[in-house]
């Protein structure tokens, strides 16, 4: 019918109401100019908006209908202001993981598309901050000043974009630096039973970077809030928190936040790598992340596989850890080193998640509960631990003095086992046992007592020269604690001489050995 508006044609939006012009010709002209300036930027015309509705909501998963064009992992806005992302796309509904409090979402609520996937802020404005996986501050500070926003899911660098891993990440932990060297761009798994010191190794590595050029990102996934607070406080007391970023999705956070936390942390760390800098990311831990993925998969009715984990859990962690890399010189030469943490049950390394992560990473540091109970800290099992990069990235001087330590220590452990059955009269075997006891005491290291590369080189050179054979085992902790100050006083140029890729010449080796010898002689004196 003429003059009627069709039902399917939306009416144009009314123009914003303008205030009445004031009295007076000059005032009216000014008001007219202001009104024209305000209206000049107003976009007029039709606008298409996709609106869906919540069919049902349970366990932080909303089933949404009416949005057939939604992309996987696209961010959705709910009527009450909450956000979520599309996890699975079915024929009629979308399984949406809620990223905020789900208690306020009800069936029938409107849901709108954003056209963008889940993104996280990046840039130097995050340094020193504690944020959630969406970049929202948790430290009570101002909103994060972001240089840009990048998707949490990004493709890993291709092979042609990568370079060889040849530079060492100094962890400050002697057993790791000497036996299982960590290279810049490497992925080294830290695995062991509950409460065996996995997080302690990662935190000590972060603390050891306070004087290096490496930016650290710590990602807490499913951890207790008190445990995360202890980590942050340890870095504040002993490290350089202004060079660290803490991405926290604690056990009390929404499952969706825990799921995207490792990917968000990786995106944040990639910013520094792509700028030609060096970054280290600790993901604590991927076992809890796998449990969260299994929880979301079961709630969205995905088929389960081994140990009730969905079949894509391997691909999930593989595409995450593949993003750690050393870039080529043409791309700036930056690096991103990953230290994922995983938990075992009763030392079972053959379980589904541990075997997945071991096959994905470039090596593993295995912690033993028996070693931990025997007060051997860090409780690194040297027989099961391995670094597939190892000596190729080790400092040349450190490689010179640590060549035989693993073999000597392994032989000692076997001899010690046999020596329990009876006395050993062989002088050579007794010397091996004496040397092995000193190696074990030397590799035991308290928390927050990281060593510099020059300290590690001096101790290992003295060990190889037999200087430590006469030092009582009980005096080894004091020797290790006093060695940094003693080297600075006796060989002040050692740190500069061994910087970079410098090798250890005979003159410097003799000076370091004599320095340790003089310190050890004082410890052998009665009453010292």
Automatic annotation (TrEMBL):
Residues 172-387 form the ATPase F1/V1/A1 complex alpha/beta subunit nucleotide-binding domain. Residues 51-115 form the ATPase F1/V1/A1 complex alpha/beta subunit N-terminal domain. One of its GO terms (molecular function) is ATP binding. Its EC number is 7.1.2.2. GO terms for cellular component: plasma membrane; proton-transporting ATP synthase complex. The record marks 385 as: Required for activity. Residues 394-517 form the ATP synthase alpha subunit C-terminal domain. It catalyses: ATP + H2O + 4 H(+)(in) = ADP + phosphate + 5 H(+)(out). ATP binds at residues 192-199. It is a peripheral membrane protein. InterPro entries: ATP_synth_asu-like_sf (IPR023366), ATP_synth_asu_C (IPR000793), ATP_synth_asu_C_sf (IPR038376), ATP_synth_F1_a_nt-bd_dom (IPR033732), ATP_synth_F1_asu (IPR005294), ATPase_a/bsu_AS (IPR020003), ATPase_F1/V1/A1_a/bsu_N (IPR004100), ATPase_F1/V1/A1_a/bsu_N_sf (IPR036121). The keyword Ion transport applies. Its main location: membrane. Belongs to the ATPase alpha/beta chains family. HAMAP family: ATP_synth_alpha_bact. NCBIfam families: atpA (TIGR00962), PRK13343.1 (NF009884). F-type ATPases have 2 components, CF(1) - the catalytic core - and CF(0) - the membrane proton channel. CF(1) has five subunits: alpha(3), beta(3), gamma(1), delta(1), epsilon(1). CF(0) has four main subunits: a(1), b(1), b'(1) and c(9-12). This is ATP synthase subunit alpha. It comes from Ancylobacter pratisalsi.
